[in-house]
Structure formats: structure tokens, C-alpha cells
Amino acid sequence: MTPHNHAKPGDYAEAVLLPGDPLRAKWIAETFFEAPKLVNSVRNCLGYTGSWKGKPVSVQATGMGQPSLSIYVHELINVYGAKTLLRVGTCGGLNAKVKVRDLILAQAATTDSAIVKDRFGPYNFAPIADFGLLRAAAEKAEAAGMRFHAGNMLSSDIFYHADGFAGYGALPEHGVIGVEMEAAALYTLAARFGVKALTICTMTDCLITKEEINAEERQTSLKDMVTLALDVAIGA
Ligand SMILES: O=P(O)(O)O[C@H]1O[C@H](CO)[C@@H](O)[C@H]1O
Ligand SMILES: O=c1cc[nH]c(=O)[nH]1
């Protein structure tokens, strides 16, 4: 149906989880969905639809970075009718108060990317999460006893900064607590097309303390993030 997606209209639910990693999309569908069905495998950027607690839900991998996410999200909204988009990612930590395995709810997303900046001329647009999704995620995370932080996320085009931690400049001292690579484009597209979006990330590597989690812990802590996102997606 598009150069990047061979699903038919109607193949996706209105609520879609968005991991960067295609294998995380497969794991989410096979681990959590009832009756998962593969709906897209173009470029191995896997997409599935199934249900969670009896309600329809989809997952679509976005690849890494804002250009790649923008393609999948643009098509999910405009071709497949997606209305609620929940990124489920991993991120680095920019504040020592955020511990590995903690969840970050990206209330806003700062970015160095031209993909957002170039659209607004003289203005510095502030990409923000949908308040209802953010509030629901915070309430559910609190009720489940999950460690989480709501705050400003950096969506960077650069994974390997030539200047290391110094490359993040004044952002950490202005309350930017994590770094990933997609949320700002997701929020900007959601604003443009009038749909709801939220990014939830698990902090997997602290750029200050250098603490990281291993593969097994990564899987366990991602379960918390995914069940939280699924409950928020279906309004449970
Ligand atoms: O784990 P995912 O969702 O891919 O997210 C993070 O991991 C990738 C970088 O390793 C980037 O996509 C970044 O945003
Ligand atoms: O984008 C990312 C994701 C995880 N860790 C980082 O440092 N950056």
C-alpha cells in the first residue's frame, strides 16, 4: 500500500506501539498480544496487530532516528488511521537521579534535528506529549510501583557525540533527563495531524555513571514499559 508498508487499510488498530527495534516489535506481539498477526514486513520493519485485554492494538517498528520514524508514523496516521501512538524505546540517562531500569515519560522532547526546526521558521516549537496519555501513564506507573520520571527528553540525531557527554551542552542543567532519537518527530507529527502521542523509554545506560543493564535485565524491565504502554493505549 505504501513503499514502506504492505498492510491493507484496516490492518492496524487505532492504538499503535512504536519501538525502534523490529525484533522488539516481534517480541511485544508474540509475548503480549492475543492472536498476533503480522501485517508488515517490508524492509523487515515488522508490524503486528492483535489484542490486549480484549481490545485491538498494533505494534510497528520505526527504525532508528527521526527520518525513519517520520515515514512510519506519517503513513500510520494518514493511510492506516492511527489515532494513539505510543513509542516504547530505550534511552540514555543525562541525570544521575534517573537510575538504569527507571522509566522516563517524555513530557516534552527537545531536539537538535532539522526535521522539527526547519518547519517553524523563526519559532522554537516545543514538541509535547498528549496530556491525557501522560497523566494516564504516570497514574498507572505509580499505582504499579514502577520507578518513573516525567520530564524533558532529548531526541538527538547523534548517537555517538564527538564531544562525549559535553556534547549535550547546557541541556542536563536545564532539566533534560534522557536522550533517545525519535520522540520530537513523533510529537511534531501528532500535533500536525491532531492525534495523540506519548513516548515512554526505559533508561538502559547512564551517560554520567556509565552504568548499563545487561541483556536479561533489559528484557525484564522492558516488560514493565510494554505492559504500561499497552494499558495506556487501550485506556485500561
Ligand atoms: O530502543 P529504541 O526504541 O530503538 O530507541 C533508542 O535506541 C536506538 C539507539 O540505540 C535509537 O532508536 C534510540 O532512540
Ligand atoms: O539514543 C540512545 C539510546 C540509548 N542510549 C543512548 O545513549 N542513546
Automatic annotation (TrEMBL):
It catalyses: uridine + phosphate = alpha-D-ribose 1-phosphate + uracil; a purine 2'-deoxy-D-ribonucleoside + phosphate = a purine nucleobase + 2-deoxy-alpha-D-ribose 1-phosphate; a purine D-ribonucleoside + phosphate = a purine nucleobase + alpha-D-ribose 1-phosphate. Keywords: Glycosyltransferase, Transferase. The active site is at D205 (proton donor). Its EC number is 2.4.2.1. InterPro entries: DeoD-type (IPR004402), Nucleoside_phosphorylase_d (IPR000845), Nucleoside_phosphorylase_sf (IPR035994). The keyword Transferase applies. A purine D-ribonucleoside binds at H4, E180, M181, E182, T204, D205. The keyword Transferase applies. Phosphate binds at G20, R24, R43, R87, V88, G89, T90. Residues 16-228 form the Nucleoside phosphorylase domain. The record marks R218 as: Important for catalytic activity. HAMAP family: Pur_nucleosid_phosp. Catalyzes the reversible phosphorolytic breakdown of the N-glycosidic bond in the beta-(deoxy)ribonucleoside molecules, with the formation of the corresponding free purine bases and pentose-1-phosphate. Belongs to the PNP/UDP phosphorylase family. Homohexamer; trimer of homodimers. This is Purine nucleoside phosphorylase DeoD-type. It comes from Devosia yakushimensis. The gene is deoD-2.
